[in-house]
Write a structure and sequence with these properties.
The protein is of the alpha+beta class and 114 residues long. It has one domain (2-9, 22-94). It is built from four helices and four strands; from the N terminus they run H-E-H-H-E-E-E-H.
């Protein structure tokens, strides 16, 4: 959680610099963890800390905030892009084309349908 907190703080600082200048902010893929294929220790549920943080940040800055994170759901792990709106509603997309050369296909479940 310590590393994630640092990532949250970094994003918050950058958003303060952009205050009122943008409507959509795109964060990198796996922005809270980087490409560490350790979902058993790093994945979160959909009601986890990062989703709550994205909800609060999108509302506070009146932006759409998007980026992907590791999600644990129904016994599987996903590289999931979250599209958080300022009103707290969100959509998501589970990555379909996992990077097999790097081992992503072994750590995460491929999306079948979104």
């Amino acid at each position: 959680m310590g590393r994630q907190r640092g990532k949250y703080e970094n994003v918050c600082r950058k958003l303060q610099q952009l205050e009122g200048k943008h409507e959509i902010v795109v964060l990198p893929e796996m922005f809270t963890t980087g490409f560490k294929y350790e979902p058993f220790t790093l994945a979160e549920p959909m009601n986890g800390t990062t989703i709550q943080w994205m909800t609060q940040l999108a509302a506070r800055h009146k932006i759409i905030l998007t980026g992907s994170i590791m999600i644990a759901e129904e016994g599987h792990f996903y590289n999931r892009l979250i599209w958080m709106q300022p009103n707290g509603e969100y959509g998501y997309y589970d990555k379909r084309h996992l990077f097999s050369y790097g081992g992503e296909d072994k750590a995460f479940r491929q999306a079948i349908k979104n």
